Amino acid sequence: MEASAAPMARRLMDEDTFTENFKNVNWPRKTYLCYEVELPDGDSRVPPGWDKGFLRNKPIHMPGPPRDAEMRFLDLISSWKLDQKLRYRVTCFISWSPCADCAQRLAEFLRENSHVSLRIFASRIFTKGDYKAGLRTLQAAEAQIAIMASEEFEHCWETFVDHQGRPFQPWDELDPKSRYLSEQLLHILQPTAPPSLPPLYFPPSLPPLYFPPSLPPLCFPPSLPPLCFPPSLPPLYFPPSLPPLYFPPSLPPLCFPPSLPPLCFPPSHPVPGPYFRSLRDSSG
User: Fold this and answer.
1) Do the Cβ atoms of 74 and 110 come closer than 8 Å?
2) CA–CA distance from 108 to each of 103, 114, 140, 142 (Å)?
3) How far is CA 234 from CA 231, 237, 239, in A?
4) pLDDT in tens, 96-137
5) Cα–Cα distances in Å, from 134 out to 22, 72, 203?
6) Mean pLDDT of the region 143-162
């Protein structure tokens, strides 16, 4: 085991380091891991004061090969050679969720050390490589994985930060961001889980239906005698058919004589005067 794997015993983190790395709306390039080990009665393997502590990843610019924070923690806990007859419960608060490789190594450790249970609370989700499969592998090894909420942030502040008596001050968007990341983690660990549905709505209880008292049975009058119809009437009488009307034969067309010549009247002649005179004379 590397000497650098052991954390500084009960050294506290300064406030700025905690806020910079655990604030879930930031995107730091470092990973910090705070841990707690619940020691069973009779344990003598964990050095005094080392049941709580924190460490960070070993970057490239530091001496020696780079090392992720999760791997440094495995180096530390493996060095204790925990008693396999006892049960140990380990809780980690980590600024980034484990990458695929670290998740695989943690899962292998849990399968090889069934006397150790592990809970991981992450401030945010690491989203590079095959991180989803890694987290599902870690869950399959019976590790509990969750997103840090206000309660976990406050616990880390009180346990691992040199706060000088100052209370934890939640930052803006802490709770909404935590809820959002929790939903993302749920879909990663349970990819077939449906979207969250609003709770079912039940209207206020309605008053019981009112039914009136039973009505008396309907009364029907006695049966009426059948209707009386008069005897059938004789059929209507129609006289015999009349002979068809008689029309005489067609008359010949009227005959008109040829046109007569116009009447000829002789020219007027005066009556002879003597003749009339003789008549008047003879009558006198």
Assistant:
1) no
2) 9, 10, 11, 11
3) 9, 9, 15
4) 999 999 999 999 999 999 999 999 999 999 999 999 999 999
5) 22, 18, 45
6) 98
Contact call for residues 107 and 138 (beta carbons, < 8 A): yes
- The mean pLDDT of 263-274, rounded to a whole number, is 53
From the candidates 15, 20, 70, 112, give the one annotated as an active-site residue. 70
Q: What are phi and psi of 27, to 5 degrees?
A: -130, 70
CA nearest neighbour of 148 among 70, 93, 99, 90:
93
Which residues on neighbouring strands pair with residue 74, listed in sequence order?
none
Please, what are the domains in the chain?
3-189 (3.40.140.10)
Residue 258 has pLDDT above 50, yes or no: yes
Task: Give residues with Cβ within 8 angstroms of 222, minimum separation 6.
Answer: none
The residue among 117, 127, 129, 46 whose CA lies nearest residue 87 is 117
Name the amino acid, one letter, at 58.
K
pLDDT at 275 over 50: no
What mean pLDDT do residues 136-156 have?
98
Looking at residue 227, its pLDDT comes to 61
Q: Which residue in 55, 102, 106, 59 sits closest to 78, CA to CA?
A: 106
Q: What is the mean pLDDT of residues 85-103?
A: 97
- What does the alpha-carbon distance between residue 267 and residue 254 come to, in Å, rounded to a whole number? 37
pTM tops 0.70: no
Least confident among 26-40, 212-226, 261-275: 261-275
According to DSSP, residue 211 is labeled -
Which ranges of the chain does DSSP label H, i.e. alpha helix? 15-22, 69-79, 100-112, 131-140, 150-160, 174-189, 273-283
Q: How far apart are the first and last CA of the chain?
A: 202
The verdict on whether 154 is a catalytic residue reads no
